[in-house]
């Protein structure tokens, strides 16, 4: 039995596995491993989840969280967020990245796109006016468009809506900013790195398992406009830093390709066969 999202699907898989007498895999894909000690009920569910045969997590941060809760270390596997690196590939040499700042995702409160927008005038005051594209849809689009008008950014910010070719937009961008209050490992960060777009993201969830600060991107200690603007000013104002971070991001491509994920899946399945 293979499941993703420990609660509720991991619990359902455990029940079915118990009835069918089959080993169970529980995949922790979001923030569950960091939240299972927040209430009596969650702690009880945590105890039940430990009865699965194997567990997968997106990176070492969540792996340590599980082992700290007495999950068996030998049964916890780090499963990379595999992406199609033949699709998410760098632009051709000589291509121009004409978008300074990109946001890609759902336009919801959790993502704090408003904080990114409020950072854009601060970057202009410290460096120069910059361009930004917002790719995605959601209930806050109208409110965010009003904010752009209020900040007098209509000449700098474009709302592109849903796009069927996100890789094309990533190739055009110099940086991508993710200012979420919480994440597991956002796929868009991995996809951005695979095309050489510099990721700038809040230090939440398992994001630090993907972004090595100062090596392949920048981690934000908060999502305040001032902190976001400082990071953007550093990247967009320093050609050498931008190039170094871009090359660091591209070096991570092999870690996130399908072949890497397939190798971990093979280990997981072998472990379940002998469980």
Which structural class best describes the helix and strand composition? alpha/beta
Q: Name the average pLDDT.
A: 93
* Sequence of secondary-structure elements: EHEHEHEEHEHEHEHEEHHH
Number of domains: 2
Number of strands: 10
Q: Roughly what percent helix?
A: 40-55%
CATH class of the largest domain: Alpha Beta
Proportion of residues in extended strands = 15-25%
Morphology? elongated
Amino-to-carboxy terminus distance: 12 Å
CATH homologous group name of the largest domain: Glycogen Phosphorylase B
By CATH, the topology of the largest domain is Rossmann fold
CATH architecture of the largest domain: 3-Layer(aba) Sandwich
Rg to the nearest angstrom? 20 Å
Number of helices: 10
Give me a quick take on this structure.
The protein is of the alpha/beta class. Helices cover 42% and strands 15% of the residues.
Structural notes for this entry:
This protein has 275 residues and is an alpha/beta fold. The chain folds into two domains: 2-80 and 257-273, no CATH class; 99-255, Rossmann fold. The protein has helices spanning 6-20, 40-49, 60-68, 113-126, 141-150, 166-172, 187-195, 225-237, 239-251, 258-273; strands spanning 2-4, 25-27, 54-57, 76-78, 99-104, 132-135, 157-161, 173-178, 198-202, 218-220. The strands form two sheets. It has a six-stranded parallel β-sheet with strand order 7-6-5-8-9-10, with helices on both faces. It has a four-stranded parallel β-sheet with strand order 1-2-3-4, sandwiched between helices. The termini are close together.
């Amino acid at each position: 039995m293979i499941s993703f999202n420990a609660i509720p699907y991991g619990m359902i898989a455990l029940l079915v596995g118990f009835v069918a007498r089959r080993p169970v895999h529980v995949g922790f894909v979001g923030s569950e491993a960091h939240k299972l000690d927040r209430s009596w009920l969650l702690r009880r569910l945590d105890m039940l989840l430990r009865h699965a045969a194997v567990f997968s997590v997106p990176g070492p941060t969540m792996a340590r969280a599980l082992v700290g809760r007495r999950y068996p270390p030998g049964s916890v596997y780090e499963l990379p967020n595999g992406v199609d690196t033949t699709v998410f590939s760098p632009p051709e040499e000589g291509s121009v990245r004409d978008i300074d700042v990109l946001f890609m995702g759902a336009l919801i409160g959790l993502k704090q796109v408003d904080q990114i927008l409020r950072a854009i005038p601060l970057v202009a005051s410290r460096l120069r006016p910059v361009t930004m594209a917002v790719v995605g849809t959601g209930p806050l689009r109208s409110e965010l468009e009003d904010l752009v008008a209020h900040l007098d950014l209509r000449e700098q910010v474009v709302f592109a809506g849903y796009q069927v070719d996100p890789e094309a937009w990533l190739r055009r961008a110099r940086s991508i900013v993710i200012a979420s209050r919480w994440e597991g490992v956002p796929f868009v960060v991995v996809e951005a790195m695979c095309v050489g777009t510099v990721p700038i993201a809040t230090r939440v969830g398992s994001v630090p398992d993907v972004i090595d600060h100062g090596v392949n991107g920048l981690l934000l200690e908060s999502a305040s406009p001032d902190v976001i603007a400082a990071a953007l000013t550093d990247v967009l104002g320093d050609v050498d830093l931008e190039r170094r971070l871009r090359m660091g991001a591209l070096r991570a491509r092999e870690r996130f390709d399908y072949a890497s994920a397939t190798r971990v899946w093979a280990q997981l399945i072998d472990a379940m066969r002998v469980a």
